[in-house]
Every structure is written in C-alpha cells, then in structure tokens.
Amino acid sequence: MQIRVLCILLLLTACSQTAPIHNTQAPATPPANESAVGGVTPRFEPPSRIGNKDYQVFGQDYKVWNGIEHYVEEGTASWYGPGFHGLYTSNGELYDQESISAAHKNLPLPSYLKVTNLDNGQAIVVRVNDRGPFHGDRILDLSHGAASRLGIVKPGTARVRLELVKVPRPANADEIIARHEARTIQLMATNSASKAEAAASDLRKEYGDAVRIVSANTLFRLQVGPLDKASAEAALRRLRSSGYQQAFFIN
C-alpha cells in the first residue's frame, strides 16, 4: 500500500510524493456488463458538487473526464485504508475504508467501475468517489473493503482491468438533479428559542415555509431552504446584506 499525503485545498486524499502520470484522454470502448459480479449496485447519481473540476497536484495538471461514455484500461491498482478512514474524500464524503469504493485521477465523481483482478480473475463493481493514486503508473486506488474482495490486500498491488459501468438516465433524472442541487442556508445558531422564533417570524414574510428552526439539545439553528440553486444563491446575497453577514450554505 502506497504512502500518501493529504492535499487539503483540493480535498484530495490519494496523493504521493512521486510525480503523477497525466492522462489527457479517456480510452473509448464499450461500457462494462456488471450483472455477473458483486460489489455495489450502480444507480443514477448527479455529479458531486465538488471534485469535478480539472485540478493540479504537485504541479501536475489533471483533467476530469466529465461526460465520459466509455472507458476501459488495464494497469496496476493499489489500496488505501486506516490512515484515511474518516477523512474527507475528494467529493466531500467521509471515507469508509470498508466500503466498496475507489480513487481515480480522471473519472467524474461519482462513477462506477467494474474492476477485475487479472491475477486471480476476481471482479467487483466499485463506486469512485475520490482522487488518486498519484504514485508511479498506478491507475486506481481501492478501499480496503474493495481490495479485500479482490484479493489485493496482502500483495498490496495487482494488475487490473477497469471498465466503466454506464448507468441509464431514469425518467425522473431532472427531479433527482434538482433535489441534489438544492441548497440550505443557515443564518444563526442560538440557545434562545425565542430569539430564533422572532427572527424566523420576520423571515417567513419573504421566504414562507422555507424558513425553519432545527433544534438539537439546547441549540436552535435558523435555516432557510432547501431552495433551488439560483434562488438559494440570490437569497444568500440578500440575507448577508440585510444583517445576516455570517449566513452560509450548509449543503
């Protein structure tokens, strides 16, 4: 298993001190048939809010293959685990080392890959939610859970075949995307229920039912949302200019 360093500004959790290999184009090949293997079940997901822009690591530029339809590649895969468990992945999720996931330098986040260990023939489908590996010529970093299923933990690396699993776009895709892009604004957190309710009462004149108070123990959080992306961005500007300078998006 390779040694890596955390790249905080990019939310990248799969890095090394070795100069990375830069792939500029994705191979064009038919999508994988995942019906005969285990692992995660692919499902339609909108692109993650973060982690899908071209980026740079150790002075090397990397391009994200947004909109990719087909991809097959063979090369070396490694795995990463305990040192990163509970830290953020490149798309903002918390890394669970026992999940069936992986890190890839170029694929959109999230993506699904059929991964076949060419040394023993074992194959599973993994969900790509992280960036890396930036070590030599390795093409994929697997979670400990995925590496265990493929028989890669003990040797540390293996020759693998990667095949993109294309997930069909469902009829309600636009609705799913809209829900994913909806944003919620937090205006204040206070231990005074009356203070939160007084502020909420004024805000409901403009934002109606989008205003809510979320309470936990003795803390009361005043929020507005969820609102569609454009409305949320406009609301945040208005709220900051009207006295809620510390207002921020919580999702």
UniProtKB/TrEMBL annotation:
Keyword Cell wall biogenesis/degradation: yes
Membrane topology value: Lipid-anchor
Gene3D superfamilies linked to this entry: RlpA-like domain, Sporulation related repeat
Pfam families linked to this entry: DPBB_1, SPOR
Domain SPOR residue range list: 177-251
NCBIfam families linked to this entry: rlpA (TIGR00413)
Summary of the function given for this chain in its UniProt record: Lytic transglycosylase with a strong preference for naked glycan strands that lack stem peptides.
Protein family: Belongs to the RlpA family.
Protein name in the entry: Endolytic peptidoglycan transglycosylase RlpA
